[in-house]
Amino acid sequence: MSSVKTITVEVRPDKRTFRDFAVFDTFVLKKHWVRPTIFCAAMTVFAVAALLFVQEQPWVIAGVLLAVGYGLPAVYVLSFLSQVSAQAKKNRLSADKKVYTVTLGEECVTVKGERRENETLTLEWANLTAYRRKRCIYLYADKNRAFLLPDGQADVSGGELWEFISARAGSTGR
Fold first, then answer.
1. What 8-state DSSP symbol labels residue 113?
2. Whose CA is closest to 150, among 32, 20, 50, 5?
3. 82: buried, middle or exposed (CB in 10 Å: 19+, 13-18, 0-12)?
4. Residue-range domain boundaries for the chain
5. What tens-digit pLDDT sequence spans the chain (174 residues)?
6. Engineering a disulfide at 84: which of 22, 33, 101, 124 sits with its beta carbon 3.0 to 4.6 angstroms away?
């Protein structure tokens, strides 16, 4: 175990990091892929039923059902990705722009925003949940608030950062 007592991360999320987080949060953690998948499966079943039981133009009905069944979920995902991209662009996310600074201490985590001078948040380790992803650690304060800790932006290596967090956070996941 590392002897580090405090770790500082000056967070500069780029568009890719933000998009990866949004996809993880929405589709993996909150499981918003389930309803579109069920809808797609139901429309496929209806299309097969149309082919088996409809007398006139079963291929047309089945084709329409499949187009709607696969088209609407595709539009949902593409719309989501478009909104994420627009939000990243609106916030001018880039590796050059510091958004907040996270200080990980033995007892608590402090987050200091860059927009307002007095914007500081103190979080207890027991209330935090952390997830290690390929290029970033997501530190959740609650189900609707997370802090991104991209690799290479801390004053320690990514492995040391994860080791420090996983030893203290209330829960962790991969």
1. E
2. 20
3. exposed
4. 7-14+93-173, 24-90
5. 456 689 999 999 999 999 999 999 999 999 999 999 999 999 999 999 999 999 999 999 999 999 999 999 999 999 999 999 999 999 888 888 899 999 999 999 999 988 776 788 999 999 999 999 989 999 999 999 999 999 999 999 999 999 999 999 988 877
6. 22
Amino acid at 65: L
* Both structure tokens of 91: 């916030």
Token pair, residue 111, equals 């987050």
Provide CATH code, domain 7-14+93-173.
Answer: 2.30.29
Dist. CA 24–CA 129, nearest whole Å: 14
Spell out where 47-158 has E strands: 100-104, 108-113, 120-124, 129-132, 136-142, 145-150
The count of C-alpha atoms lying within 13 angstroms of the C-alpha of 114, restricted to the half-sphere facing its C-beta, is 11
HSE-CB of 1 using CA atoms within 13 angstroms: 7
Distance between CA atoms of residues 82 and 52, nearest Å: 38
**Measured distance CA(105)–CA(103) in Å, rounded:** 6
Residue type, 161: L
CA-based end-to-end distance of the chain: 20
